[in-house]
Amino acid sequence: MQLEEFLDEVRDRGEYRSRDEAEHVSTAVLWVLATRITPEEADDLAGRLPAPLDEALHLERGRPESFDLEEFLWRVAEQTGARPRTAQWDACAVLSTVADAVPGGRVDDLLSRLPTRYAELFGRTGPPAGSPQAGTPQAASSEQT
Predict the structure, then answer these.
(1) What DSSP string runs through 42-110?
(2) DSSP code of residue 132
(3) Looking at the predicted structure, is the pLDDT value of residue 140 above 90?
(4) Distance between the two ends of the chain, CA-based, in angstroms?
(5) If you compute the radius of gyration of the chain from its CA atoms, what whole number of angstroms results?
(6) Is 126 helix (H, G, I), strand (E, B) or coil?
(7) CA 64, CA 127: separation in Å to the nearest integer?
(8) Measured torsion, CA atoms of residues 37, 56, 10, 93, in degrees rounded to the nearest 10
(9) What's this model's pTM, rounded to 2 decimal places?
């Protein structure tokens, strides 16, 4: 997916006024995601997104931080200057576009390493194929990470 197409999709989904706003929100959401996933996962995802959006996934950092969906949304809100409820809208607009731009197996692989509630941000309704089903002790413990 080319940059213009990606940003047009985010703009439509997020109902943003401008391409610049869609790009700002996209960069913020991807930056927060990069703090949550491994550098290898971030590099793989970056390789599938158009420049300059891919740069938001390349951080100078060590190990990924472990935080739940609420903390993810709080961090997105902090980056965009929005309220947490708006941050959820923003994250869904960007990450559902990512899910459409990246081959499904890659997104499922990424989601299998995140708490199950992250799937809704990517436009997925249930746990990805091969991941523990919601309600199992393993899935419940992954919600804490």
Answers:
(1) HHHHHTTS-TTGGGGG----SSPP---HHHHHHHHHHHHT--HHHHHHHHHHHHHHHHHHS-HHHHHHH
(2) P
(3) no
(4) 31
(5) 14
(6) coil
(7) 21
(8) 30
(9) 0.84
